[in-house]
């Protein structure tokens, strides 16, 4: 396994873990999720859909690890997650919720890293 392949594996697994965790929190209606979504203007009815997008992205990233034939699926999933978290950042900025901007920023960073490594490998 090359260094790039190892980095891809580690970063993708991290990205998958954080997205599955956040999707679970969305679906469970965790207190911090409900408070944050209310503060940035995301309706509660959107949470299951956002969770589904996070889970789809995580699944696509995992499938993209299973060989070159499925790598485009991983790239597409990473692109989707990048767009999702750019949207999250936009909602935070629009609501001037700068104190917790690091969270969607971190999720965006993992998605961007997954995308960059998937494309380069």
Indicate the multimeric state.
single chain
State mean pLDDT (0 to 100 scale): 96
Tell me the β content. under 5%
Based on Cα principal axes, name the global outline: elongated
What's the helix count? 5
Domain tally: 1
Helix content: over 70%
Strand pairing plus helix content: what structural class?
Answer: mainly alpha
Uncertain runs: none
Distance between the termini: 12 Å
Number of strands: 0
Evaluate the radius of gyration: 15 Å
Largest sheet: none
The topology string of helices and strands comes to HHHHH
Question: Mind explaining what this structure looks like?
Answer:
This protein has 121 residues and is mostly helical. 80% of the residues lie in helices and 0% in strands. Helix 1 runs antiparallel to helix 3, helix 1 runs antiparallel to helix 5 and helix 4 packs antiparallel against helix 5 (102-120). The protein is built from five helices and no strands. The longest helix has 26 residues, at 3-28. 29% of the residues are buried. The model has no long low-confidence stretch (mean pLDDT 96). It has one domain (3-120).
How does the SSE layout of this entry go?
Blueprint: H1 3-28, H2 31-40, H3 47-64, H4 71-94, H5 102-120
Helix pairs in contact: 1-3, 1-5, 3-4, 4-5
Essential attributes:
single chain, 121 residues, 0% strand
Briefly summarize what is shown:
By secondary structure, this protein is mainly alpha-helical. Helices cover 80% and strands 0% of the residues.
């Amino acid at each position: 396994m090359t260094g790039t392949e190892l980095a891809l594996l580690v970063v993708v697994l991290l990205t998958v873990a954080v997205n599955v965790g956040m999707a679970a929190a969305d679906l469970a209606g965790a207190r911090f999720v409900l408070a944050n979504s209310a503060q940035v203007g995301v309706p509660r009815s959107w949470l299951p859909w956002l969770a589904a997008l996070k889970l789809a992205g995580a699944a696509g990233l995992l499938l993209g690890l299973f060989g070159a034939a499925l790598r485009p699926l991983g790239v597409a999933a990473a692109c989707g997650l990048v767009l999702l978290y750019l949207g999250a950042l936009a909602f935070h900025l629009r609501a001037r919720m700068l104190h917790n901007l690091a969270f969607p920023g971190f999720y965006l960073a993992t998605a961007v890293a997954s995308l960059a490594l998937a494309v380069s490998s």
